[in-house]
Automatic annotation (TrEMBL):
This is XRN2-binding (XTBD) domain-containing protein. It comes from the Eukaryota. Residues 104-123 are annotated as: Disordered. InterPro entries: Paxt-1-like_C (IPR057067), XTBD (IPR021859). It comes from Mesorhabditis spiculigera. PROSITE patterns: XTBD (PS51827). Transmembrane segments: none annotated. Residues 16-101 form the XRN2-binding (XTBD) domain. The lineage of its organism: Eukaryota, Metazoa, Ecdysozoa, Nematoda, Chromadorea.
Length: 340
């Protein structure tokens, strides 16, 4: 989007700010925000989000992707970094004192000096980490209508990587080239564990800010917020819950709409009625290995109209709770959503 276009076509500030990730510092966010704002009306939002992250990876981290991706980022990102710096200075001048601005500049300069250079990052990367970076690029620009399995197979084929899923006594795990990516000891039945693991790994790698390998185990994030393969499932679920919550904005808070939104983000949600003592029944809502909610229905509740009303109430409660999801871990490693 050019500066000369009508302001009516510009995205709302609230819509842009909603895209900021909690771990993004001001410098990274100003650059990615400018990229988003420049192409807000040109691309589908999901594609734009992925490309904006690739743009940051290339320009601020030093990642390299295949020639096609690099050419696209070069085209879409032309002048963006200069524009971001200019806008950042203008906003700092309007909203902050000169002293605050000077302090920020010193802090950013110090951070830049401490940050590893592109050459240092490249020198320290292993061949497998290089492949992972390329794999992430393929997953970020994959067809939105492809299944997680299709995305993983296509991306791995392009990078000549192999993935293996094994369900052991101590937990299900997914590996790539004999590196452990994700491991989870599932606590319940009734869903496809392999499909759940594939969806998790595809989402985790595509959304990763940074990845590193230690003793053939994949870790995500930067210190002190490094998370490993045993945290991968839980972290991915929480990120997707947050996106589902945004997806539900403006939609009727029904169980059907919630299930549809979950499926769109690679989450298999299921709710059913289980018989209990006497005439009572229990409504149970699961998403993968996570218990979302359960509610006891008494005898007087077990009529169609009343049951549907209760199901709708539970759906609303789940939607409120996944906006900032908190998972409670049981002694048997089971996970349940903390409801508001």
């Amino acid at each position: 989007m050019s500066d000369d276009e009508p302001s009516a076509k510009k995205p709302k500030i609230s819509d842009l700010e909603a895209e900021r990730k909690t771990w993004e510092n001001d410098q990274v966010w100003h650059a990615r925000r400018t990229f988003l704002e420049s192409h807000w009306n040109d691309l589908p939002l999901e594609n734009l989000r992925c490309l904006s992250q690739v743009f940051i990876n290339v320009n601020m981290i030093g990642c390299e992707y295949n020639p096609g991706v690099m050419e696209k980022i070069k085209e879409l990102g032309a002048g963006i970094m200069d524009k971001a710096r200019r806008l950042k200075n203008e906003r700092a001048f309007v909203k902050a004192s000169v002293g605050r601005k000077h302090a920020n500049e010193i802090r950013e300069q110090t951070e830049a000096e401490r940050r590893p250079t592109v050459e240092q990052r490249k020198a320290n990367r292993t061949p497998f980490e290089d492949k992972l970076i390329q794999l992430r690029a393929h997953l970020q620009i994959a067809d939105l209508h492809s299944t997680p399995l299709q995305k993983l197979n296509t991306a791995c084929a392009r990078q000549q990587m192999q993935w293996q899923y094994v369900d052991k006594i101590d937990g299900a795990e997914l590996r790539m080239n004999d590196h452990l990516i994700c491991k989870r000891k599932f606590s319940r039945e009734g869903f496809d564990r392999k499909e759940e693991m594939i969806s998790t790994v595809v989402e985790a790698i595509a959304q990763a800010e940074s990845m590193s390998v230690v003793e053939k185990e994949l870790f995500f994030g930067e210190p002190p917020n490094v998370r490993g393969p045993y945290d991968c499932y839980e972290d991915s679920i929480c990120r997707r819950f947050t996106r589902v919550s945004r997806h539900m904005n403006g939609k009727a808070p029904s169980m059907a709409n919630l299930s549809e939104a979950m499926a769109y983000h690679g989450l298999a949600m299921k709710h059913d009625m289980q018989p209990t003592k006497r005439w009572e029944q229990k409504l149970v809502v699961h998403c993968g290995d996570v218990l979302l909610a359960e509610r006891i229905l008494k005898k007087e509740d077990c009529i169609a109209s009343k049951t549907q009303q209760i199901i709708a109430e539970v759906a609303k409660q789940i939607i409120r709770s996944i906006s900032v999801p908190k998972l409670v871990k049981g002694g048997d490693e089971s996970l349940s959503l903390k409801l508001e």
